[in-house]
Write a structure and sequence with these properties.
name from scop, 43% helix, 3 helices, 15% strand, alpha+beta
């Protein structure tokens, strides 16, 4: 049996300051688990999207996402925005 390693990528976006979201962390295995653990500790929403994480993981750290990913990432930002509204 082949065990799949966890894979994670984290984005940062500051509305009004950044042109586009950028990859600020990425990793597989233990590093991915640490990224997810850190997100949970800080109350950062996590969304699973295996296809998107594969693409984001191919980008360099601190690289803005390319325009082709704007729609997919906009869906994630909308997801986070809705969660934040519910939390208030």
């Amino acid at each position: 049996m082949i065990e799949k390693k966890a894979k994670a990528a984290a984005l940062k976006y500051r509305h009004g300051e950044d042109r586009a979201p950028a990859v600020v962390a990425k990793g597989t295995g233990a590093l991915a688990e640490k990224i997810l653990e850190t997100a949970r500790e800080h109350g950062i929403p996590i969304r699973e999207d295996k296809t998107l994480v594969e693409i984001l993981s191919s980008l360099d750290l601190y690289q803005e996402i390319p325009p082709e990913l704007y729609r997919a990432v906009a869906e994630i930002l909308a997801f986070v925005y809705k969660l934040n509204l519910k939390a208030k």
